[in-house]
Amino acid sequence: MEEHVTAVLGMPGFELIAADLVDGEWELLVQTRRDLVGCPACGAVAVVKGRRAVRVRDLPIGGVPVVVVWRKRSYSCRHLLCENKSWTETSDLIAPRSALTERARRWAFDQVAHHDRAVATVAAELGVGWHTVMREVRRRGIPLIQDPVRVAAVTGVGVDETAFLKATGTHSTVYVTGITDLTPGRPARLLDVVQGRSGTVLGGWLGERDQTWRDQIHTASLDPFRGYATALATHLPDAVRVLDPFHVVKLGLTCVDDVRRRVQQETTGHRGRVDDPLYRRRRLLRRRHDRLTDTAKAKLSAALDAGDPDGEVTAAWWIAQQLMAAYHHPHPSTGKLIITRTIQAAKDCPVPEVKRLARTLNAWRTELLARFDHPGVSNGPTENVNLKVKNTKRVARGYRNFDNYRLRLLLNHGSINNNRHYANPIRDRRPTIMT
C-alpha cells in the first residue's frame, strides 16, 4: 500500500511520508528514496549531515491547494582533505529557490498559454501570487513566440485593427494592428500584434520580414482603410489585395441608413418614430430582397411609397441590393460585371450619399474586383481571430501592459497547433479493481 500511495504522488524518486489537511490546504511530507550518494569531488560515499524542510506548491487535489514539504538531506564528505565539505541534494522535479514544483510550473503555463485562462485564476488555484505564474509564462512563452518557424510558410495574410485600451479621461482609445495568417488549408492564426493603427505601423512590421518571406505572400485581405492598402502595396507589391465583401456590403447598407435618416428628417421634421413608415421598416431595408417573404416585400413596398416621395431611399436601397447580389451570384465573371455597372449607376445617381458611396467604391475598384478572381479570400477568419482576442482580454479583465498583452495573444492564438482540438476517447473497459 505504501508503494501505491507513493505512485499516486506521481514524483519519481520521492516517497510520501505523511499527509495532513492544514488550514484548508494539503501538506504532503516527502523525501527522496534512500540510496548511497557519492561526493561530487572525490567520489567517496557521503554521510548525511542533517535535513532541512523546503516548501513548494504543487498541483491542487480536488480543488484543494497542495503544499509539498521536502525533507532535503544535507551531505558531507568524510575525507578531511576533500575540498567539497558539504552540499544539499537536488532534484529535477523541484528547482532551487522555486515556489512551484516543475510539474506545477508546466501546468500553470499550459493553462494560461493553451487554455486561455486568466493568470490570476491559475495563481489562486496554486496558492501563489500573480507574478509567480506570469514569470513562468514569460520564461517559457517568449522563446516560443520568437521562434522563426512560427511565422514561416505563410502565403496569405489578413490585416485588421482592434482596441487595446478603452478611452478614459486622460487618453483616447488605443488601437493595435493584428496580422493574421490566412494560408489556405489550415486554420487562421495570429502572426503578430503591433501598437498603433496606421500604414506606417503595418509597413514597419512588413519591413522587418526578409525578402524571401515577403515574396511568398500571394494574397492579402483587408478592410477599406487606405493606410493598410498603401503599406501592403509598398512592401508586398506582387500580392493581390482583396477587399473584404462584408465591409463592401456594410458600406452600401450604411448609405441606405444615411439616406433614410435624411429623408425622414426632411419629410417629417423629426427623427424616426415608431409610427413613421421608413423607421418601422428600417430592418427590412437592410435585408437581401430575395430572402424576404411576400408579406415582408409588401410591407417594404408600402413603406417606400408612403415615406419616400422622391425615390431617394429606393435608389440607395437598389444600389445596396446590387452589391449583395454581385457577391451572391454563382459566376464570378457575372458578379464582377454587376459590380462595375453598380458603381457606374451610383456615379450617375443624384442622391448625394450614393455619389459619396460611388467615389469610395471607385477608389477601391481594384481590390473590390479582385475578390471575384480569388473567391476563397476573405477577412472573415481575421474577424474570427479578433473575436478570440476580445475573449482573451475579457477573461483577463483587460490589459495595461502591451508586452504581456502581445505575449498572451500570440501564445493563445498564434501557435500552429493551438486550433486542433481532439475529443478524449471514451473508456471501453472497467477499472481492474472493480468486480
How does this model look, in words?
This protein is an alpha/beta fold. It is 45% helix and 19% strand. It has 16 helices and ten strands. The strands form two sheets. Strands 1, 2, 3, 4 and 5 form a five-stranded mixed sheet that branches. Strand 1 and strand 2 (25-32) form a beta hairpin. Helix 5 runs parallel beside helix 7, helix 11 (312-328) packs antiparallel against helix 12 and helix 12 (332-348) crosses helix 13. The two termini are 20 Å apart. The mean pLDDT is 89.
Short description:
With 435 residues, this protein is α/β, with parallel strands linked by helices. The chain is built from 16 helices and 10 strands. The model has no long low-confidence stretch (mean pLDDT 89).
Question: How is this fold's topology laid out?
Answer:
Layout: H1 2-9, E1 14-22, E2 25-32, E3 47-61, E4 64-76, E5 86-88, H2 102-113, H3 119-126, H4 130-145, E6 156-165, E7 174-181, E8 189-195, H5 199-208, H6 211-215, E9 219-222, H7 226-235, E10 240-243, H8 245-268, H9 277-280, H10 294-307, H11 312-328, H12 332-348, H13 352-363, H14 365-373, H15 380-395, H16 402-413
Number of strands: 10
Residue fraction in strands: 15-25%
Amount of helix: 40-55%
Form type: elongated
Helix/strand/pairing category: alpha/beta
How far apart the termini lie comes to: 20 Å
Rg is: 32 Å
Calculate the mean pLDDT score and round it.
Answer: 89
> What order do the SSEs take from the amino end to the carboxyl end, as H and E?
HEEEEEHHHEEEHHEHEHHHHHHHHH
Counting DSSP H or I runs of 4 or more residues, the number of helices is 16
Q: Describe the biggest sheet?
A: 5 strands, mixed
Low-confidence stretches: none
